[in-house]
Amino acid sequence: MKVAVLGTGYVGLSTGVCLAEIGHEVVCIDVDERKIDLLKEGKSPIYEPRLEELLIKNSTEGRLAFTTFHQQGLREADIIIIAVGTPQSDDGRADLSYLEQAAKDLAEHIVRDCVVVVKSTVPVGTNEYVKQLLLGQLKSNVEIKMVSNPEFLRQGSAIEDTLKADRIIIGSDDVSASEKIQEMYRPLNVPFLLTDVRSAEIIKYASNAFLATKISFINAIANLCEAAGADVEDVAKGMGFDKRVGSAFLNAGIGYGGSCFPKDVKALLHTSRELGVPFSLLEETISINEHQQELLVDKALKRFGTLNGKKIAMLGLSFKPNTDDMREAPSIKIARSLTASGAEVAAFDPVAASNARKVIGDIITYVDSAVEAAKDADALFVVTEWEEFKQHDVAALLDVMKQPIIFDGRNCLDEAALKACKTIEYYPVGRPAVILKGND
Ligand code: UDX
């Protein structure tokens, strides 16, 4: 099949590459010339495991192309997938301006009957809105059918999540359009859920809001465990054995970030207000998360009395491991709070430092290794659970620190290794602290 993908962000690029990988002829279109030039050279503008490898393979084998020209990209497409961003507006609503521009560009250049798929995360009713926009501006006399097809890929495993998805949601009020999209995805051998457009739109927000709520729930339980002297890891394990609860997304920590959960919870809350349906559970999800992002700084303040003049090492900046994405990363709030309290911060992240600098700026120092960050530090904050931090020799970090104090915001350091250290103060989230004072 001939597929055009509009937008080469995380979703568009992963989708385009994977559709080429399963045999379709794909053209990815973006207005950003710099990005398209990079992609033409076989370079991925984002850090994502396997993305570049599949990008090069499918481009070389002639199934994947990139262009800034809509006309060229859309000329032969049977299916057009819109995967442009829908960022958060100031009032929490999803900003649809990229989508509106995409509809305008499509209307201008579509020259044959086709199915238009909205993959961008959009509030309920948007597919209908896009269809009206398209129909109102079409330049050629063609038939357009709409399909809502939200995605559920995670950053850091976008390719894996696309090729081995749990389900593919196809929302359409037109049987032939729905069948065409099923045919496109059939080689993936993933279960389909066929539904109407509005339900498909809501499934995406409901899934993300549910997962975010699960995280806030376990974080609230973690705080309770801390106060009660219990261990949230065991509590989560005990809960997770129950299939109705499930063990995934019960890792307590310093809250969720990223390009989806924060904005999608807020957008769903906005929709519920617009529709006059109270949904205060979502307000609580957001407020627990905001509080959780302050947790490490609060704990350090409690431990030291003041952070003025203290040297803090931050391990990890990205919102989660295996990505250089800094969107809504808890590290942003932590870095700002620490420096506002007079602390000096040295941060290390395996890949996110340059993106972090764009957001956090030079109020903190960016260094090249965990040991360099830890040098002379009064405390170490583990902010992102990168594998290399989990594997790191904790003793080597403590050796160079001024004080052997660790606040682990992701409960990811190896407890046996910590307990083997003679002198340490280790504060995880929702678990008992490990405090050893020279016990030889
Ligand atoms: C998420 C959804 O998982 C995905 O389906 C959707 O398409 C986009 O949003 P992503 O943002 O890439 O994906 O990351 P995810 O792995 O889900 O983590 C989101 C945030 O939640 C991260 O900040 C992570 O640290 C946090 N998290 C996740 C927890 O704090 N605890 C957990 O148990 C799981």
Automatic annotation (TrEMBL):
Domain UDP-glucose/GDP-mannose dehydrogenase C-terminal, first and last residues per copy: 313-415
Pfam families: UDPG_MGDP_dh (PF00984), UDPG_MGDP_dh_C (PF03720), UDPG_MGDP_dh_N (PF03721)
Principal EC category: oxidoreductase
Protein keywords: NAD, Oxidoreductase
EC number: 1.1.1.22
Reaction it catalyzes: UDP-alpha-D-glucose + 2 NAD(+) + H2O = UDP-alpha-D-glucuronate + 2 NADH + 3 H(+)
Pathway named in the protein's UniProt entry: Nucleotide-sugar biosynthesis; UDP-alpha-D-glucuronate biosynthesis; UDP-alpha-D-glucuronate from UDP-alpha-D-glucose: step 1/1
SMART domains for this protein: UDPG_MGDP_dh_C
Molecular functions per Gene Ontology: oxidoreductase activity
Cited NCBIfam families: NDP-sugDHase (TIGR03026)
Family the UniProt entry places it in: Belongs to the UDP-glucose/GDP-mannose dehydrogenase family.
Protein name: UDP-glucose 6-dehydrogenase
Lineage: Bacteria, Bacillati, Bacillota, Bacilli, Bacillales
